[in-house]
């Protein structure tokens, strides 16, 4: 009888062949949890180790490792994107570019959200806007329960939403995730987000990674055969999705994973999201 794994991964085209049963393994049965949007799986995984394997935001994973959670990272990227298009302001705003965010109010779902983590690092490194020079307005706690927001972060009043506060002028800019609104009354803080993304790539040599896949560390240690069986099935599903044209993103190699994780670990430490800066050996569990 095949072993079973509980898995929480979002609507990735590489998951469909496994979910549908088109690809099956004689070694394991994968039970996919119904979680939507997928970020709702991150807190239960970080706090309770709810699943055997789960998609997780890279910022959340770094926090979880920093606070001693028994998780192990797998070399599977489920979401990578340039972040600049996620930072919006009102179309009639006086904000001319990222440098104008000093002294402004910027909303984000949670201060620990990975898109915000990437953007704050870029704002500080490239545009001279350190996180503490901005008043950050949040709506949720971090997925890692031990973390507390820094003093320059305040919580929005109950019943308010990120989009409504931006539209009304209660905040000056906002960072959205995959749910960026298509609203003609809003515009990017970056005058040309595509050009800014190109400059980021030219400087760093990779597309920032937002989500990867992790597993219970105990499972990796005690049943490496199951982890390898899952990885093999995922690789087969990846090849099938690319052959069928449902997976169009270019593969991300280990070098790019390491470079992305290393820079994000620096940003996380500088922003106080982790107790210390994590090295790649600790991130990968070596």
Going by helix content, strand content and strand pairing, the class is alpha/beta
- Taking Cα atoms only, what radius of gyration do you get, to the nearest Å? 19 Å
> How many E-type strands?
11
Mean pLDDT: 96
Give the strand order, joined by hyphens, for the main sheet: 8-7-6-9-5-10
Query: Helix and strand string, N-terminal first?
Result: EHEHEHEEEHEEHEEHEHHHH
Taking the sheet with the most strands, its summary is: 6 strands, mixed
Shape: globular
Query: What would you give as the CATH superfamily of the largest domain?
Result: Periplasmic binding protein-like II
CATH architectural designation of the largest domain: 3-Layer(aba) Sandwich
What CATH calls the topology of the largest domain is D-Maltodextrin-Binding Protein, domain 2
Beta-strand content estimate: 15-25%
Report the uncertain regions. Answer: none
Distance between the termini: 32 Å
Our count of domains comes out at 2
Structure characterization notes:
The strands form two sheets. Strands 8-7-6-9-5-10 form a six-stranded mixed sheet, sandwiched between helices. The protein has a five-stranded mixed sheet with strand order 2-1-3-11-4, with helices on both faces. The chain is globular. α3 crosses α9 and α4 crosses α9 (about 255-270). α4 (about 115-125) links the parallel β6 and β7. It has ten helices and eleven strands. It has helices at about 15-20, 40-50, 60-65, 115-125, 160-170, 195-205, 215-220, 225-245, 255-270, 280-285, and strands spanning about 5-10, 30, 55, 70-80, 85-90, 105-110, 135-140, 155, 175, 185-190, 210-215. With about 290 residues, it is α/β, with parallel strands linked by helices. The chain folds into two domains: about 5-80 and about 205-285, Periplasmic binding protein-like II (D-Maltodextrin-Binding Protein, domain 2), CATH 3.40.190.10; about 85-205, D-Maltodextrin-Binding Protein, domain 2 (3-Layer(aba) Sandwich), CATH 3.40.190.10. The protein starts with a strand and ends with a helix. About 40% of the residues are buried.
């Amino acid at each position: 009888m095949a072993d079973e794994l509980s898995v929480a991964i979002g609507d990735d085209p590489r998951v469909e062949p496994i979910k549908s049963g088109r690809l099956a393994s004689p070694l394991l049965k994968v039970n996919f949890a119904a979680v939507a949007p997928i970020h709702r799986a991150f807190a239960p995984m970080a706090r309770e180790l709810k699943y055997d394997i789960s998609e997780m935001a890279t910022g959340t994973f770094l926090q979880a490792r920093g606070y001693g959670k028994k998780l192990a990272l797998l070399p599977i990227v489920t979401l990578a994107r340039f972040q600049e298009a996620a930072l919006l302001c009102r179309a009639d705003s006086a904000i001319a570019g990222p440098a104008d965010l000093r002294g402004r109010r910027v909303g984000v779902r949670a201060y620990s959200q990975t898109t915000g983590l990437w953007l704050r690092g870029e704002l500080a490194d490239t545009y001279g806007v350190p996180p503490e020079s901005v008043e950050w307005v949040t709506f949720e706690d971090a997925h890692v329960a031990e973390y507390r927001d820094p003093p320059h972060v305040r919580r929005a009043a109950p019943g308010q939403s990120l989009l409504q506060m931006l539209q009304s002028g209660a905040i000056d800019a906002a960072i959205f995730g995959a749910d960026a609104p298509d609203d003609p009354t809003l515009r990017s803080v970056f005058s040309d987000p595509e050009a800014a993304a190109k400059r980021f790539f030219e400087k760093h040599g990779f597309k920032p990674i937002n989500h990867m896949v992790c597993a219970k560390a105990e499972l990796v240690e005690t049943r490496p055969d199951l982890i390898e069986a899952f990885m093999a099935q995922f690789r087969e599903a990846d090849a099938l999705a690319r052959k069928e044209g449902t997976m169009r993103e270019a593969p991300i190699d280990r070098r790019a994973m390491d470079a992305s994780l290393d820079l994000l670990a620096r940003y996380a430490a500088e922003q106080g999201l982790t107790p210390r800066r994590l090295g790649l050996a600790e991130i990968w569990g070596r």
